[in-house]
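User: Round two. Same drill as before: sequence, then structure, for each protein.

Assistant: Same drill it is. First protein:
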Amino acid sequence: MADNPSPEKKPKATPRTTRAPTPDTEPMPGSESKTESHPTIITAGHIYDYLLCPHKVYLDEFGDRSRMDPESDFERVLWDKGMAHEEEALERLGFAVAQIECEGFEECERETLRLMKGGEGFIYQGRLSAPSMRGSPDLLEKVRGKSRLGAYHYVPIDMKSGSAYEDEETGRFKEHYVLQLSFYADILEKVQGVKPETGKIVDGEFHVVSVDLKPFEREYFERLSEIRDLLSGKAESEPCIGGVCAQCHWRSFCYRWAKDRDDVSLVRKLNRPRRSALRENGIRTVSELAELGNAKRLPKFEGISGRALEQFVRRAVVFKRGEPILHSPVELPRRRFEIFFDIETEPLEEICYLYGIVEREGEEQRYLSFFADSPDEEESAWNAFWKYVSGLEDFQVYHYTSYEKTVLTSLSERYACDPALFERFFQESTDLYGLVDKCTEWPSHSYSIKAVSKLLGFEYSERDPGGLKAAMWYIEYAKAPGANRALREKIIQYNKEDCEAMIVLKDWLAKKNEEAFGR
């Protein structure tokens, strides 16, 4: 089961420097001090991180790194995958590049400038700087247009493993992509005397997408100013618990901070703007938000709709009581034969390597799996799964989130599948997450199947289970299936437990539905 969307290549690492203490009246624990001899240097990585979470930028500069969570094996593999994608992109697009291969930023920058002055067509992994800025664009492309260099100048190209668009139908680009290109264009203006009007993105399908940077100038400079203020200590910063925390090195530190203060951001989906709106009205803790539940009528807060405030108050009450509730009736089909369905994917290679099912008929349960022992066997596992489905009659499928349908829809375009069988399988399916999200509240920031089933007493055999961890097991297993049989069994056990966790949840929903609504 996927815990997060397919990842994209990480931005290049932000240089580490020591920083000055924050001017906050209550400084963050473990902060370091900054010396004036080490001025703040902004990179494209800061832009990426800032858009995810401003406080991550703050902690990366000021925080005590001994309190960081360790880097995962998946992150290291992801970085290697990003480099491999770049090399494949260069080969597929036929770019004849001059590659920078030096030690240290300064030496690489000197070589980059030498190649730019020499009029090299494409420069790969160059390094550029301007006052308080350092950039590492994937590619620099020589184009016509007068500059300090001559009758040409350079434009930045970034290579990404995902789509360039947040919404391709409307043409809306991913914000961090275009602002990182704007950052490189800003540095290039200072180096060559001409600011590129466009940048380019090589996407995961190796398409070259041109981006007009002019419409993003105002937003870029606003974000740059905000980052400068944050890194210099002019702006204050605090954690705000959200969905992006799951993949951050500071997640444990920030969760402890929020828990110690009963911070209102512990309430699910209560983001920074909404938290600010509550704080402006004197509500800083989950307890204070829950107290609004005793009021005859909820107050009106600018920036939060009445419906949203009602939901947040209900969640705060549940959070403090420590017991989940079913607040609206759910529709659960009554079928004797039930299927609890979960897949496992390896997101780096975009492989679906396991289809797992727990069949339940009355009191009897049986687990089945369709496993690809190598990426080459993905189609065989797919065919075996659909052969099994073709023999089913009068069944009800349960899964958690729409991820299974999304992945299987993509695979159906790659491999043969009876459209009628595919349609029937998902017509007879219920997304349990949809019911959880719409009709329940839980004393947890996360509504993942792991989080909600744990609150119902279910226990996984792994201490910290997750789809990314299982993907790493699979990567190791596929290298030598004969020698790594134990990893295969661990993956299957994890998948089986996800299916069993859904059974616990479904039965709880059915029981509460009967008790509260007589259904």
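Second protein:
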Amino acid sequence: MNRSLRRPPIALLVALGVLMLAALALLAPRAQAEETAADAALQKVETHKVCMVNDQLFAKDQIPVEVEGKTYYGCCEMCKERLARDSSMRQAVDPVSGEPVDKATAVIGALADGRVLYFASEETFAQYRPEPAEAE
């Protein structure tokens, strides 16, 4: 019988099958974890829970600061004063569109570490995909 037409031994086929299954088992959870991490990496948060000077999420309500008919929030008296006098503290840049955003009217998302990002709209909030370093 011609050797090139012989079937490989069953043990070799089983070993190859096991290796393929192991590779799939290693890759599938990673892809799923990456999707889950991206989805969980940004949570929409309420404006009054954010210090808009430190750009940080807090568990408790922050101190409201009224400026030109809009309400901003700070975590302490120093932040409250900065918001009142420094207009740059009341502005951010949408990480998706690059547009300037007024923090009082922004859609705000918090990363897992409590840092917040400001979005010009619900659409750009939904489009946001974190950089790998931010997702960790």
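The two ends are 59 Å apart (CA to CA).

User: Perfect.
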